[in-house]
Design goal:
globular; ten-stranded mixed beta sheet; four-stranded antiparallel beta sheet; alpha/beta; 520 residues
């Protein structure tokens, strides 16, 4: 029955009542002290490697501290699973076409409306420290100290309010040092603050801090059950170039740059490796060589081929990735400790997220970009002082961050923002936005990973994806097919579900100004 199907698909979450910042005090009213905002974001941090979500691979005790005293969102999604566009969606609260930054070849229009600018109008002191990756210089910030492009893991160069400065150390530590320095002495302590603390880590190529190189050396991680996916019925997935087996480079990704150059890579990747290594100081090189020279020697002696080589590459990838996450978690702990020691924790909203999800070998992949769950879904953990604790199944998206911050600050949410404030969810109140699915659009093709342009809609129970350059559709029943292996588009019995999802997709495309992409 269509009515039953409609009820099943449309059961979703939604929009945002504005909550007053005034409280009763006898017969008078007083304005609450404005709440600070600490927005911690990493690059490519998978929800699978945060133990508050999944303890299979690693323990992350400090990120888990936020979850233990806050809310873990289990249905948090991005609007465009790639770094720069995702960041633009967060800043503006708008989908990519509306904010003008559709792919990483774009340049962010810094003159447009962003939540930091609107917070400044509310009297907030704003700062962004760490990764920016939006090409143009930051605007709307009282202070900015950003990595150049992707940034380097070792001894990175920053641009501090327009001045280039190379800083000694490991990027995650240095970024945290800069953030703590700003909190301690760089800001106006009379004003509420909004700090965007954005780490480079754990972006490819997953270079650990020297103190973490020995971690997980004896760990062996089980191959994901979809590691040898054959992509049957999924033509776009079959054409990708993000396979651990075929596309993960031994030198560039896995650090097998041996001294006698017996292990070769693409010339441009070998040049990158030489540059990164030359950027290290003698102490860093000594630690690096002590670790990787031994790994390289064992690898060469093993002479691995076929599935044995695939499995080795997966283990090496996982170990380095998790070592990088260890440093992230340790530095999150440093910031949490500071807030507690300075008496700021009780008046600071703390957000931990990533710019998108990431593949930990599922479907045989690394990287992101797809509307499939592992890259579309992102971790989101939020601690609101006095708010609810536990987990939420509310379907939220990274376009919702901007209006949430604005509502918390008592600012008016502009009508052209696409997102919906989820502050009511944090307070344990009913959340009823006018949303019956979340919209996704990935624009960047061709690129090094050959992921075709696609868009789609996800509800609580189903996902419809359109690879529009090829006219290919995919439909998944998320309850029956959690790994998205069985494309049921066009199969008998799916007609009603497909019609309803296409109706929802067109509705969202019109709502977000994407009419030009409506399938004819």
């Amino acid at each position: 029955m269509l009515s039953k199907t409609k009820k099943m698909i449309a059961r979703s979450v939604a929009g945002a009542a504005v909550l007053p910042l005034l409280v009763s005090c006898g017969e008078s009213e007083k304005v609450e002290k404005p709440m600070n905002i600490l927005f911690i974001m990493c690059d490519d941090h998978s929800y699978q490697t945060i133990s508050a979500y999944d303890s299979t691979f690693i323990r992350t005790p400090n990120i888990d501290r936020i979850a233990a005293d806050g809310l873990r969102f289990n249905n948090s999604f991005v609007a465009n699973s790639i770094s720069g566009p995702s960041r633009a969606c967060m800043l503006t609260g708008k989908h990519s076409l509306a904010n003008g930054f559709t792919d990483n070849s774009s340049s962010f229009d810094g003159s447009q409306q962003t939540f930091p600018k609107l917070l400044q109008q509310q009297g907030y002191e704003t700062a962004v420290i760490g990764k920016w990756h939006l090409t143009s210089e930051p605007t709307g910030f009282n202070h900015w100290d950003i990595l150049i492009g992707q940034g380097d893991y070792y001894n990175p160069t920053f641009i501090c309010n327009g001045e280039k400065i190379q800083r000694e150390g490991y990027a995650t530590n240095v970024t945290t040092d800069l953030a703590l320095d700003w909190l301690e002495s760089g800001r106006n302590a009379e004003k509420p603050f909004c700090l965007l603390l954005h780490h480079k880590a754990p972006h490819r190529t997953w270079m650990p801090d020297t103190c973490d190189l020995g971690l997980f050396a004896d760990s062996n991680f089980p191959l994901p059950e979809t590691f040898y996916d054959n992509y049957e019925g999924r033509l776009a997935a079959a054409g990708q170039k993000m396979s651990i087996s075929k596309d993960m480079d031994l030198v560039y990704d896995l650090k097998m740059a041996d001294k006698d150059s017996a292990i070769h890579s693409r010339p441009d990747l070998e040049e990158w490796g030489r540059r990164i290594y030359s950027n290290m100081n003698p102490e860093q090189k000594k630690a690096w060589d002590a670790h990787y020279d031994e790994v390289i020697a064992k690898f060469k002696a093993a002479g691995l081929e076929g599935k044995d080589l695939d499995a080795w590459k997966y283990q090496q990838y996982m170990r380095d990735y998790l070592r990088v996450i260890t440093s992230v978690d340790r530095n999150v702990g440093r910031v949490l400790d500071y807030l507690e020691e300075k008496g700021l924790a009780d008046n600071t909203l703390i957000v931990y997220t990533s710019d998108q999800g990431f593949y930990m070998g599922e479907h045989g992949w690394f990287d992101k970009r797809w509307m499939y769950e592992e890259s579309f879904r992102t971790p989101l953990i939020v601690r609101l002082p006095g708010g609810v604790k536990g987990e939420s199944m509310a379907m939220v998206q990274n376009i919702d961050y901007a209006p949430t911050f604005l509502e918390l600050a008592g600012a008016e949410i502009p009508s052209d923002i696409h997102g919906c404030s989820f502050l009511p969810v944090l307070k344990g109140e009913e959340w009823l936005p006018n949303r019956d699915g979340v919209y996704y659009h990935y624009y960047e093709y061709p690129d090094e990973h050959a992921v075709k342009r696609h868009l789609g809609v996800r509800t609580e129970t189903h996902k419809l994806i359109h690879f529009y350059d090829d006219g290919v559709w995919e439909l998944y029943d998320l309850n029956a097919d959690k790994h998205e292996l069985n494309n049921i588009y066009g199969k008998p019995g799916t007609e009603e579900v497909t019609a309803l999802l296409k109706e929802k997709l067109v509705k969202l495309q019109k709502q977000y100004g994407e009419e030009q992409f409506i399938a004819q």
